[in-house]
């Protein structure tokens, strides 16, 4: 069989795989009706782990303290900060009686390990329902705790929320960050929707303390600095105990990285945990990203050679129809604007950057969380 025939049939297989992902899996979340649960008013402990975040705490902690919720405390964890993070925490504590400070100092066994700091914060919480976010995150409304806590039930002990990034006009990096965030959310919300939850983001995540202790906390992956969110959820989440919360008032928004260097370092830390996912999750994620990469490579090869170009072009058009249909619907659901006009450019650029990050991680591993 001629080489171009092999390339062509491989391309058809890739299109079939992409169809399976977009129409068979991702559509389950894209077209899922957003569910509004009744308020439960259960006691909640909001946990914020901060390392050198003095200014961000000044800017964003008030949006947590001003939540319209009758019974919540805020656990502020100072993870061996070198700036005046602790002083800022103490300033807020003097004004609010629902703040508890956990001051963590480095010890040799858990040097610069966020999971160690989070564990101390979780142990200090008086409530069983724990809601996590970062120091550079801001709830989009004063109903954030209400919305996230309403998704708990007798069986549902883990709630996956959406953490967006602030929009910066005129920034290619910002478009790329928000597109990658949208694509990642499309995947983890979709898999959760079909009963196969595999990850979450610590910017907006909630679970019960008994779930944490039943899993022995972070002990099974304490040797990896990252993964307090995705590895923990990958280990314990099931169809029975996990729910998602994507009501508009449940979102958080974070400050995005402003340089490619900082963003690549952040993504290197995130991606470094993927090899510890369950095998079925690794296979699914690998198949999706491989099919994305092969789509571009094989399409360009076939069109450059003008091989069956009419059929190839039709398949390319069909694939982009799926992309715009599913990601467009998901973007509207998650409030992401300005991405659709440059979707193909962002996808190609993201695939290239992911390849660079993968190669960098093969050469050397990222270490401290900050």
UniProtKB/TrEMBL annotation:
| InterPro entries recorded | Glyco_trans_2-like, Nucleotide-diphossugar_trans
Give one GO molecular function term: glycosyltransferase activity
One of its Pfam families is Glyco_trans_2_3
Q: What transmembrane ranges does the database entry give?
A: 6-31, 283-305, 311-327, 339-359
According to the lineage, what is the superkingdom?
Bacteria
Write out the entry's keywords from A to Z. Glycosyltransferase, Membrane, Transferase, Transmembrane, Transmembrane helix
Residues of the Glycosyltransferase 2-like domain: 45-170, 175-322
Which segments does the entry list as coiled coil?
none
Q: Which family does it belong to?
A: Belongs to the glycosyltransferase 2 family.
Q: Quote the PANTHER family the UniProt record gives.
A: POLY-BETA-1,6-N-ACETYL-D-GLUCOSAMINE SYNTHASE
Name of the featured protein? Glycosyl transferase family 2
Q: Name the species this protein comes from.
A: Mangrovimonas yunxiaonensis
